[in-house]
Amino acid sequence: MARILGLDYGSKTVGVAVSDLLGITAQPLLTIERKQEDKLRQTLAKIEALAAEYGADRLVLGLPKNMNNTLGERAEKTLAFRDMLERRTGLPVILWDERLTTMAAERVLIEEGVRREHRKETIDQIAAAMILQGYLDSPGSKEAP
Predict the structure, then answer these.
(1) Of 9, 16, 67, 130, which has the fewest beta carbons less than 10 angstroms from its beta carbon?
(2) How many domains does the chain have?
(3) In terms of residue numbers, what domain contains 44?
């Protein structure tokens, strides 16, 4: 079985998580940072390299829906990022509802006693792991893409 990468796409960062080989657990991996929101070439190249390094057969991308289930500006940018990822990597990109994952990640870090100034270093990775874990726990995740 191949690994799966989970992505939490933000305006300046992309949190990345990776599954274990059995597709049971998600682990935070790293945060990709960029200077400008629309400068994505290096971000896409890094994700492509990580997918190759870990032998990923698909990507799970958090989709930031509004609480009323509509798609706002951030979701529209995420859909465009998905299209770029699919073209760049040739891998299927599964969209996963990411509502409240960043808040949940923040709560985990607070409970672990991580100081505020250190939280921003890992919050996106943890959110990516939560997105990926949600997907891994779903019934369809074990099917080949």
Answers:
(1) 67
(2) 1
(3) 3-140
Helix (H) or strand (E) holding 84: helix 73-89
CATH classification of the domain holding 90:
3.30.420.140
Instruction: Pull the structure tokens for residue 38.
Output: 């629309």
CB 125 within 8 A of CB 109: no
Model confidence at 140: pLDDT above 80? no
Question: Tokens 């949190």 sit at which residue?
Answer: 15
**pLDDT score for 115:** 85
**Helix (H) or strand (E) run with residue 53 in it:** helix 41-54
Look at 145 and 83; give whichever has higher pLDDT.
Answer: 83
The answer to whether position 145 is within a domain reads: no
Cα–Cα distance between 126 and 106 in angstroms, integer? 9
The reported pLDDT for the residue numbered 144 is 67
In a domain, 51, yes or no: yes
Q: What are phi and psi of 26, to 5 degrees?
A: -115, 135
